[in-house]
Inverse folding.
């Protein structure tokens, strides 16, 4: 006796149906799995990143408010701690120093931060990953950031030479540390972290006090706030307290660079989890709906029979729903498994990339269950609509064969050339126009696949445009030298005399608060020469614009955030020196993609600050032959704080892009391929099922396989053609959506999609459609010519 | 007399499905002269359709030979069989097998587009008396009308042979007579060799030759000296 006897006959029918439809069910399951995988993966990453971030911040007391000043007395600490809502404050010394690394031609730099003499800081703690804490009284001891040490192969016990306030000092690394304050550590003037060229150094306060002549004083504050405290109020009060001491404006955690990057990474992750999955789920739902509808259409008489035998509507409904649950559950499980694997793998990469000390992988079950439920829900609802119709069928009606498909002359036939089209072409056109909704949805599905490729790879075009504008048109220097304080403008002559220097341009940069009505932004105001050449803003057409004799230029992004238009008046509050405040006209917008800045003529800024002509940054172009000699001289100079080298930045960006791009392209092509493939395959299979009989009749009449294939595949081919421009358009919109995910204050992706990008996305789409067409074509070759003649459909 | 349109020699067809072997044809020897109207009679399951399908190049024989004007069809590849059907054979089936997406005229044009020397679709439809229904879709035609479109589609390319498998099987007797009349007219006007399968022995009276099949063999063959018109036939 076989076990089969215990299976309900209806379930046996179900298994046979499933075996017959395996191709379509598999296609739906795979697309569903892709959607669920992305959903679960992004859910996993979001949860684990968010929890990790929260735990890291909490354990090491990451500050809520930050501020810098020139020199404030430590006794101000009481007032600061008394600001309502402040729970703890670290009064620190924080400086940028130059690092002298013998095997590096160029100078490197470090941010050096004071830590209390005894015990770890109360705010912005340091996590020791190796070695020990700095000991009191040992002025040369330092904790180095783990990232930097790892990149340079340094360990506790190694020495490090820094230039502190113009004097070389040999320091000894006693420990390696990490801090939530510097998860994403970018040197001033840089675009990306340069691990081997930028360090964070923690040093005991007394060692720094002496070096910077800050005995009993501080120049940097980090505050934590009590839960529910009003951050804006605290910022206002802190500003007020620091103003007499050269405060440059306090800011909240949201504006802290490292946090902003990490947060945007997390948000970006979450958002990307919302872009792709709906496409996949919708496509899978559509495919399944069509497949079940077709099955029910073919089984009309059987349904009528079942009902005539006394099976209830519910029995019939459950029968077909079960079929839909096969891809639902298998796709859901596969997707959840893949997603969790990918989430885990990606979180390991993140841990490495950001040097996170730990990664919490305590992902709630709801992420997986949610993915599975979504899959099952999508399948069930896709089938339910079709099943509803089956259930509504009156048994007597159901058992009558369906009337022949009725066609009418459509719009197409009204066209004058319709009569001259070959009949097979007319068949294709009529079939498309007979089911316009299905044709539209199929087109949309293929277009979704195509758009996924466009959107997935648009970052190439965006980044190469960004790199071109930012590093060829705007920044044309080789090196940017930063000085610790403003220097007399004449210093450019000294710089010009350094070996290999071809051209020098001095810029006075100062932090400002720019406001328009109630909107305020804290940015850098760049005082440019009248005719800037090495660092020159450009307009929307990438034409250089010089700062006007009066008024300011600003990044378009900044202007839009402040609600400003060219011609409007903005309020500038310089957060340095005698802190002048003045109104000025917005002379124009500048097109840039990195950071946000305002520009005006340097004399105007110098005059406003009441200072002699001075600069704080020098842009330099170099004779490539004398590159090493130049940096050797810079390393000897006491006043250069940091040097940011353009080619290194470009290399770093290209390295990161290359590392990511091949994976991203591969993954997106895979996704897009599965969508195109699934939709085309499904649609061709359905067409074959509906018209197999017609096609076999044509074969009987002497039509060759190719001719018959044309009639069947011509339809999907035509829809694929329609889908291409639509896919391009959707791809552009998707790209626009992705562009909005960038942390716009830091970096903006230009919405540029090149013709090549569209063309290759379309080629891919055609390729996938073609391959799935070929697979279905093999079934046409196996059509049973004799069988169709014997039966009436 | 010239070579016959068809000649079969020891034609055998065996279907093996699982453990069951069905001998559909057990050695059929038959000669169909050019231009004749032949009726195939026989009980259901006697092998009529199988024979017709093999003659028409839709199916392949297990053993034996089918000569079309002296050429052995059993030696042809599937592609050559397709060409054979395309160039020489017209088919009419019990269930019409029209393209629902095409009008009557277009269904016929479907064939004229791939034929070498077709008549016009309009002429073919006129032959079956459907001149006024040319732009109707199958769903807008009655069964008999649909079948006449199928006949027009079959004869439009001026085929050498016309093979009809129970063309009146799905029709009432009156309509059936009209369809048969259309077939006979086509045979007379184009001198097309025509083979018609039917259950109705009465139809035999309008044929040149009547072949009885039983259990996969030719049991009897009869040549009519006088043919009746379809309207004279008793159903
Ligand atoms: N594809 C097939 N598989 C198995 N047996 C078949 C197949 N086609 C026909 N037969 C069998 O061959 C025999 C002859 O069938 P057919 O030629 O269709 O008879 P007729 O047309 O005279 O009614 C029948 O017994 C039928 O069951
Ligand atoms: Mg038969």
């Amino acid at each position: 006796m076989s076990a089969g006897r215990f299976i309900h006959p209806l379930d046996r029918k179900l298994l046979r149906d499933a075996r017959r439809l395996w191709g379509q069910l598999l296609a739906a399951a795979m697309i569903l799995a892709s959607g669920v995988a992305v959903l679960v993966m992004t859910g996993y990453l979001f949860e684990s990143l968010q929890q990790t971030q929260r735990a890291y911040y909490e354990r090491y007391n990451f500050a809520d408010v930050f501020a810098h000043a020139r020199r404030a007395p430590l006794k101000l600490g009481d007032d600061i701690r008394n600001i309502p809502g402040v729970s703890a404050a670290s009064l620190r010394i924080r400086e940028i120093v130059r690092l002298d690394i013998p095997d590096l031609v160029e100078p490197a730099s470090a941010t050096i931060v004071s830590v209390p003499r005894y015990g770890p800081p109360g705010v912005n703690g340091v996590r020791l990953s190796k070695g020990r804490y700095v000991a009191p009284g040992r002025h040369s001891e330092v904790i180095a950031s783990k990232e930097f040490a790892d990149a340079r192969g340094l360990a506790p016990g190694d020495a490090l030479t820094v230039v502190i306030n113009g004097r070389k000092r040999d320091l000894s690394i006693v420990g390696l540390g990490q801090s939530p304050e510097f998860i994403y550590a970018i040197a001033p003037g840089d675009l990306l972290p340069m691990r081997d060229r930028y360090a964070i150094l923690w040093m005991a306060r007394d060692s720094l006090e002496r070096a910077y002549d800050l005995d009993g004083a501080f120049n940097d504050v980090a505050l934590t706030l009590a839960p529910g405290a009003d951050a804006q109020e605290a910022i206002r009060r802190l500003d007020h307290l620091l103003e007499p001491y050269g405060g440059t404006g306090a800011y909240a955690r949201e504006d802290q660079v490292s946090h902003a990057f990490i947060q945007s990474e997390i948000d970006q992750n979450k958002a990307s989890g919302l872009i792709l999955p709906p496409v996949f789920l919708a496509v899978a739902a559509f495919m399944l709906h069509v497949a079940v509808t077709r099955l029910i259409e073919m089984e009309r008489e059987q349904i009528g029979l079942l009902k005539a035998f006394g099976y209830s509507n519910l029995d019939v409904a459950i029968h077909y729903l079960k079929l839909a649950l096969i891809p639902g559950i298998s796709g859901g499980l596969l997707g959840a498994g893949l997603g969790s694997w990918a989430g885990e793998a990606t979180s390991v990469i993140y841990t490495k990339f950001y040097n996170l000390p730990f990664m919490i992988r305590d992902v709630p079950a709801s992420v997986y269950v949610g993915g599975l439920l979504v899959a099952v829900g999508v399948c069930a609802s896709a089938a339910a609509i079709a099943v509803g119709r089956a259930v509504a069928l009156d048994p007597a009606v159901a058992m009558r064969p369906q009337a022949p498909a009725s066609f009418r002359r459509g719009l197409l036939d009204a066209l004058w050339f319709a009569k001259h089209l070959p009949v097979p072409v007319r068949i294709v056109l009529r079939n498309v126009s007979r089911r316009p909704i299905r044709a539209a949805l199929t087109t949309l599905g293929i277009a979704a696949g195509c758009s996924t490729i466009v959107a997935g790879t648009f970052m190439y075009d965006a980044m190469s445009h960004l790199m071109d504008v930012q590093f060829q048109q705007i920044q044309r220097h080789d090196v940017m030298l930063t000085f610790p304080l403003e220097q007399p403008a004449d210093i450019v002559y000294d710089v010009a005399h350094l070996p290999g220097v071809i051209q020098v341009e001095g810029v006075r940069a100062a932090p400002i608060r720019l406001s328009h009505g109630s909107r305020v932004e804290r940015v850098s105001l760049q005082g440019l020469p009248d005719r800037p050449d090495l660092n020159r803003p450009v307009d929307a057409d990438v034409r250089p614009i010089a700062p006007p004799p009066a008024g300011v230029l600003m990044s378009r992004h900044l202007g839009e955030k402040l609600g400003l238009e060219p011609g409007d008046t903005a309020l500038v509050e310089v957060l340095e020196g005698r802190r002048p405040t003045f109104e000025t006209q917005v002379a124009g917008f500048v097109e840039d993609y990195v950071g946000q800045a305002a520009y005006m003529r340097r004399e105007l800024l110098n005059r406003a600050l009441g200072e002699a002509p001075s600069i704080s940054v020098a842009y330099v172009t170099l004779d490539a032959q004398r590159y090493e000699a130049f940096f050797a001289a810079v390393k000897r100079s006491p006043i250069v704080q940091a040097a940011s080298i353009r080619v290194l930045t470009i290399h770093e960006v290209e390295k990161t892009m290359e590392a990511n791009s091949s994976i991203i392209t591969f993954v997106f092509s895979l996704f897009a391929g599965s969508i195109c493939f699934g939709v085309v395959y499904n649609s061709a299979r359905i067409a074959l099922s509906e018209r197999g009989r017609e096609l076999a009749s044509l074969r009987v009449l002497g039509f060759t396989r190719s001719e018959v294939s044309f009639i069947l595949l011509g339809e999907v081919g035509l829809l694929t053609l329609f889908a291409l421009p639509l896919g391009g358009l959707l791809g552009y919109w998707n790209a626009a959506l992705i562009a909005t995910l960038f942390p716009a204050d830091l970096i903006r992706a230009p919405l540029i999609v090149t013709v090549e990008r569209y063309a290759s996305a379309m080629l891919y789409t055609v390729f996938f459609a073609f391959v799935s067409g070929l697979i279905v074509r093999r079934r046409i070759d196996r059509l049973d010519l004799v069988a169709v003649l014997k039966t009436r459909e | 007399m010239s070579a016959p349109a068809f000649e079969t020699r020891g034609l055998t067809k065996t279907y093996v499905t699982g453990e069951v072997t069905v001998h559909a044809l057990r050695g059929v020897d038959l000669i169909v002269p050019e231009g004749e109207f032949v009726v195939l009679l026989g009980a259901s399951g006697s092998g009529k359709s199988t024979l017709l399908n093999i003659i028409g190049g839709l199916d392949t024989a297990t053993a034996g030979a089918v000569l079309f004007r002296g050429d052995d069809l059993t030696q042809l590849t599937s592609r050559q069989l397709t060409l054979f059907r395309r160039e020489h054979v017209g088919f009419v089936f019990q269930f019409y097998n029209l393209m629902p997406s095409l009008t009557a005229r277009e269904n016929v044009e479907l064939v004229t587009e791939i034929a070498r020397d077709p008549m016009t679709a309009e002429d073919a439809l006129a032959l079956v008396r459907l001149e006024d229904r040319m732009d109707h879709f199958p769903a807008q035609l009655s069964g008999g009308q649909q079948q006449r479109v199928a006949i027009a589609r079959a004869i439009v390319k001026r085929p050498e042979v016309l093979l009809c498998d129970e063309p009146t099987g799905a029709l009432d007797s009156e309509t059936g007579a009209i369809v048969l009349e259309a077939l006979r007219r086509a045979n007379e006007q184009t001198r097309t060799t025509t083979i018609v399968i039917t259950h109705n022995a009465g139809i035999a009276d309008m044929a040149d030759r009547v072949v009885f099949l039983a259990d996969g063999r030719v049991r009897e063959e009869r040549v009519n000296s006088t043919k009746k018109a379809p309207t004279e036939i008793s159903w």
Observations:
- Chain A is about 55% helix and 20% strand.
- The mean pLDDT of chain A is 87.
- The longest strand of chain A covers residues 501-516.
